[in-house]
Amino acid sequence: MSKKSIDGSVNHLLENNKQKSLETVWDRSDQQKPRCGFGERGLCCHNCYMGPCRINPSGKKPQKGVCGATAEVIVARNFARMIAGGAAAHSDHGREVAKTLLLAANNPDSSYSIKDVNKLNKVAKVLGICFQDRSKEEIAAEVAEKVLENFGKQDGEVSFIKMAPETRQARWGQLGIVPRGIDREIVEMMHRTTMGVDHDHRNIMLHGARTALADGWGGSMIATELQDILFGTPSPLRGQVNLGVLSETDVNIIVHGHEPILSEMLVLASQEQELIDLAKSKGATGINLAGICCTANEILLRHGVPIAGNILQQELAVSTGAVEAMVVDVQCIMPSLSEVCKCYHTQLITTSTKAKIEGAKHLEFTEKNALKNAKKIIKEAILNFPNRGNVDIPKEKMDLIAGFSHEAIIYMLGGTFRGSYVPLNDNIINGRIKGVAGVVGCCNPKVTHDQGHVSLVEELIANDILVVQTGCSAIACAKAGFLLPESADKYAGKGLAEVCNAVGMPPVLHSGSCVDNSRILIALSEMAKIGGLGKDISDLPVAGAAPEWMSEKAISIGQYFVASGVFTVFGIGLPVQGSQVFCRHIFEEFEGLFGGMWAAEPDIKKMAGLIINHINKKREKLGISKAKERVLYDMEMRRGLEV
Ligand code: NFS
Is the Cα dihedral 265, 271, 276, 279 positive or negative? Predict the structure, then answer.
């Protein structure tokens, strides 16, 4: 890999950091080479202390762990535990949002309120809660209580499963994998994969599907839907992205992590006149809040707050010397930040009781005193401004349009009165749009930063495939300029460009953070329900991809997409490749079970080829593989049609 990134701001700062001997994620990644081949293939087991055990991938002994576990059992258990880890992270986030909605409903003095009543009523309807002639607080309290039950339920099914097409629900029912309670499925996954329990890789992965569905249609969907109620459903707005959004003259505060419960309050606090005045009294021109990772996506989508970068840019943001405080909550936060911050004046502030870092200042953020806590954090940053030394802010920044929630897409396509997915389905049927791909997930220093996302998306839109994005992948493509309507003419195929120009949308739609992948599930369900493209998600000409994945959360997302019927390709590699039996199961046999299956393809051109072939295969099956233009009937033709 010649360059670490395709992003000039990253390469510039890395060069400077090298001279300062400042260690970053790329240096530590190099120090790990050569990587453990057993671990990379998923072949080591440390689930009990008779081990650790590993299977020899060459076929020589040992071919079994001390307990007798085979390669496929070990690989399955490791993979399933990654699903459980990812599902736990998304779902614990969802739980906090539900608790905050309950607080907002029951406590008028709390800093939170119910912003989107339409969405509240919509969610209440799905949950079977009466919303007529009741106050929004009453409805919200019942919604929050009902979804909170979803976590601890032992039987039945998680509520939002109902949003899936009926054929899909029936398939899950036949397979016995409808998630009952979110916590229950995660606990059972950990139980089954502990020493001496489930030794059938197929059975392990069936529960892996159930656990992942409890994330996608449970924890993540709860997070998204309830965040929309609390903070507003996103609609298209303009923003900016990359390290160039940092200001030379303002107090720069970066919020990094995942839960908008914190970041929304920081947005509010940063607009307080008294704090802006304080910043000015310290010699700054104002307060500049910017985000990193998914919390950035959340506040970009709802407030247009700029994004400083994706996961691999967190240390680099500090190394600009221009950040007064890096405020973090949970997930994707590197502990190394503490060391990097020591080299600058930057104050690292942890806020969650679940996530502390040695060397950071801990300012506990609780929902109860949210705004007060947020103000305290902002004040801390302002007071640090006079300690700023030399700064080196890269020039790179790019405009983007974001905020394509499922509701916004419907509105964009059809307006208030006839908004639906019919126009999208029509354009897929007439072949202007060949299909839809969700390109999501992380960045990983094992490959050139941002390259996989950008090259894949470029290839897909050139082939008339509409791309929907979330997470760090969306940030990568935003930096490349794909998230602007103008990019349709520049990069998209003729058919897709025509549709984009007619509607005024970019060919790449930013739908939010990683929990917002649930928006894609709902959009796919709607496409299937509308008709014309089959009856189930697995009939649609769609696919999913995570070209630079790294997190357990990505594995859970991949598994729930597959279990929902979507062909899903991961780049880099998957830690399952030590067992051919297991690979055959998730790459091939899964299709018969779920209608969707996994694939692993590190070569981005080939990955694009797999997605395009899959979409063509689905189009052929639907009988829409030949481009058909709609016939505009004149009166004579119409009369000819009459019997
Ligand atoms: Ni998703 Fe978001 Fe980024 Fe990966 Fe991490 S921030 S929740 S896990 S690295 S996309």
Answer: positive
Domains 71-231 and 243-387 share a fold: no
Give the pLDDT band of residue 631 (cuts 50, 70, 90): low
Q: Considering only CA atoms, which residue is closest to atom 9 of ligand 1?
A: 442
Atom of ligand 1 nearest to the CA of 443: 9
pLDDT tier at 633, thresholds 50, 70, 90: low
Closest CA to 555 of 521, 585, 517: 517
Name residues contacting ligand 1 (CB within 6 A). Answer: 258, 293-294, 311, 332, 441-442, 471-472, 513-514, 551, 553-554
Q: How far is the CA of 24 from the centre of ligand 1 (A)?
A: 18
Q: Three-state SS for 357?
A: coil
Count the alpha carbons within 13 Å of 58 in the hemisphere toward its beta carbon. 3
Which one of 1.10.565.10, 3.30.559.10, 1.20.1270.30, 3.40.190.10 gives the CATH number of domain 71-231?
Answer: 1.20.1270.30
Q: Which segment of 256-265, 366-375, 598-607, 620-629 scores lowest on mean pLDDT?
A: 620-629
Percentage of the residues of the chain whose pLDDT score is greater than 90:
94
List Cα–Cα distances, 24 to 8, 20, 59, 318, 395, in angstroms: 16, 11, 37, 11, 21
> For ligand 1, atom 7, which residue shows the shortest CA distance?
514
Is the pLDDT confidence value at 642 over 60? no
Looking from the CA of residue 293, the nearest atom of ligand 1 is: 6
| pLDDT computed for residue 643 by the predictor | 38
Give all strands of the β-sheet with 508-510 in edge-to-edge order. 508-510, 465-469, 435-439, 542-546, 567-570, 598-600
The pLDDT of 279-302, averaged and rounded, is: 98
Which pLDDT value is given to residue 213?
98
Average pLDDT over residues 510-533: 97
Burial of 23 (0-12, 13-18, 19+ CB in 10 A): middle
C-alpha–C-alpha distance, residues 145 and 391, integer Å? 48
Domain boundaries, the chain: 71-231, 243-387, 402-622
Residue 524's nearest CA partner among 510, 508, 535 is: 535
Report how far ligand 1's centroid is from the alpha carbon of 389 (Å).
31
Ligand 1 pocket test target in 330, 332, 548, 570 with most atoms within 8 Å of CB: 332
Q: Whose CA is nearest to atom 4 of ligand 1?
A: 442
Task: Report pLDDT digits (tens) over 460-499.
Answer: 999 999 999 999 999 999 999 999 999 999 999 999 999 9
From the alpha carbon of 549, which atom of ligand 1 is closest? 4
Chain mean pLDDT for the chain: 96
pLDDT of residue 108: 87
Helix (H) or strand (E) holding 437: strand 435-439
Side-chain-side CA neighbours of residue 352 (13 Å): 20
User: Are 253 and 381 a contacting pair, CB within 8 Å?
Assistant: yes
Q: From the centroid of its chain, how far is CA 159?
A: 21
What distance in angstroms lies between residue 533's CA and the mean position of ligand 1's atoms?
A: 31
Q: Using CB atoms within 10 Å of the CB of residue 592, give its burial: 0 to 12 exposed, 13 to 18 middle, 19+ buried.
A: exposed
Mutate to test the pocket of ligand 1, among 263, 311, 331, 453 (most ligand atoms within 8 A of CB): 311
**What per-residue confidence (pLDDT) applies to 418?**
63
450 pLDDT more than 80: yes
- 131/261 Cα distance (integer angstroms): 25
Taking the model in full, what pTM does it have?
Answer: 0.96
CA triple 532-536-539, angle to 5 deg: 70
Q: Which fold has domain 243-387?
A: Rossmann fold (3.40.50)
CATH fold for the domain made of 402-622:
Rossmann fold (3.40.50)
